[in-house]
User: Which sequence fits this backbone?
């Protein structure tokens, strides 16, 4: 059973090796002529104003949290979709109940403005 | 002589590791070549759409152009910015590239040509297509540059938002096919062009393609790069081979999404004329790898077409489209397709 997944593991290793090899070859073939201007962060020719690692918009964080909820929802859908043949009408009704609760949550985040970007 | 070749062949086949590596090479080499010519194809197609000629200097019709580009990129300096986290900075392109290639492990090219015929193929594909976003986030963070950071935040938020719509679109396919094995998903669509899932799942098919555009950060959803605002986004500090790897990953992802669209919604390797009166009896009615590649190329062409046709979206519009339009539609259509299956309107492999 798990032996089926061995080629996938080998494939992952090979594609990682390809990526590493390309970067290493580029590093070996390319010149290295550093100077302080070239190595400073790119900001359209200005000196960098301040450090990059400062505060950033909380909405990105919010999106990440909402993503987890909805992605979990998908993981609940996957086994249900596979077993639908045996579940039949009962499965559909059960999923409607489950979905109704999620839709209430969805309406709440929509009304509270969590999905707004102005 | 022939016997010797045969015995060598048998020995290679008995060596599991060598045999697997050979099979992987047979997938990866054409893939890299496809990426190279896809970049050429893109410039030619967009050139024609804008009434230009596109690349035409290097080799006949400019056909050698992609190789010239590769060598130029490999021979350029990889700039390591002083403020960057050096280790993460060089790891990020590799993390972006590895899943874009490795996802091909479960893609069935025809009925028997598949590297790993696993039952959780669809889950594996979903997992690997979402892994690509790590490369973007790590690149943006490690560069320690404002444009790179902004681009990475945008790309990550956009990718996760559209991943939900994409996941739900695939749930629709799963309901109709009743299997997560990609080969069985294709086989469940047997019966000609009107039995493929693009018809009963048309809204999900469209949403899958839109989400594919957003996942790969392609125009009109290329906010992560947004040349006019944040220059090049998350890879603004990358140069030379490190940039080339990001480029390779992006195009490999586009080819992957095209191939997956062909498998999920357009019958994979199956022939569109299957079961048709006259034409279905000829070789055109037979499913083969050529059909799969042809469908993939059509979807690949559409990626370029979108880029030439549509202007870039604004970021708030992208997020609104993802969260307020695509997710409700997918939810409704998933439940509808569940009803269609249970009531027997769409029958498996009819």
Assistant:
């Amino acid at each position: 059973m798990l032996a089926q997944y061995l080629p996938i593991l080998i494939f992952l290793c090979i594609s990682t090796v390809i990526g590493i090899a390309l970067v290493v070859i580029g590093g070996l073939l390319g010149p290295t002529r550093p100077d302080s201007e070239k190595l400073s962060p790119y900001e359209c020719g200005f000196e960098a104003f301040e450090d990059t690692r400062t505060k950033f918009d909380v909405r990105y964080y919010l999106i990440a949290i909402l993503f987890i909820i909805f992605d979990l929802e998908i993981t609940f859908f996957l086994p249900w979709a596979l077993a639908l043949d045996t579940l039949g009408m009962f499965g559909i009704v059960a999923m409607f109940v489950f979905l109704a609760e999620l839709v209430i949550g969805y309406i709440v985040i929509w009304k509270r403005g969590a999905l707004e970007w102005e | 002589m022939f016997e010797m070749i045969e015995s060598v062949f048998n020995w290679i086949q008995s060596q599991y590791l060598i045999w697997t590596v050979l099979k992987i090479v047979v997938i990866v080499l054409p893939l890299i070549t496809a990426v190279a010519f896809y970049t050429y194809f893109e410039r030619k197609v967009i050139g024609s759409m804008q009434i230009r000629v596109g690349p035409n200097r290097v080799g006949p019709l400019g056909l050698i152009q992609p190789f010239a580009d590769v060598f130029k990129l490999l021979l350029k300096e990889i700039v390591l910015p002083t403020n960057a986290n050096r280790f993460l900075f060089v790891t990020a392109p590799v993390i972006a590239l590895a899943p874009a290639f490795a996802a091909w492990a479960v893609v069935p090219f025809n009925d028997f040509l598949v590297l790993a015929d696993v039952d959780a193929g669809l889950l594996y594909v979903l997992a690997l297509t979402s892994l690509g976003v790590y490369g973007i986030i790590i690149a943006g963070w490690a560069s320690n540059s404002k444009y790179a950071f902004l681009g990475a935040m945008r790309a990550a938020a956009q990718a996760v938002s559209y991943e939900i719509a994409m996941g739900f679109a695939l749930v629709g396919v799963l309901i109709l096919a009743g299997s997560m094995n990609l080969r069985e998903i294709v086989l469940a669509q047997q019966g000609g062009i009107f039995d493929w899932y693009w018809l009963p799942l048309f809204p999900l098919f469209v949403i899958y393609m839109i989400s594919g555009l957003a996942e790969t950060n392609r125009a009109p959803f290329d906010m992560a790069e947004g040349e006019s605002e944040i220059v090049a986004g998350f890879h603004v500090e990358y140069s030379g081979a490190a940039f080339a790897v990001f480029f390779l990953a992006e195009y490999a992802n586009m080819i992957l999404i095209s191939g997956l669209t062909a498998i999920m919604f357009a019958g994979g390797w199956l022939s569109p004329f299957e079961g048709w009166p006259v034409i279905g009896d000829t070789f055109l009615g037979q499913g083969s790898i050529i059909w799969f590649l042809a469908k993939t190329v059509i979807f690949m062409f559409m990626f370029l077409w979108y880029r030439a046709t549509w202007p870039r979206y604004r970021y708030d519009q992208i997020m609104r489209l993802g969260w307020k339009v695509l997710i409700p539609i997918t939810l409704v259509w998933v439940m509808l397709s569940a009803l269609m299956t249970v009531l027997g309107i769409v029958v498996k492999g009819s």
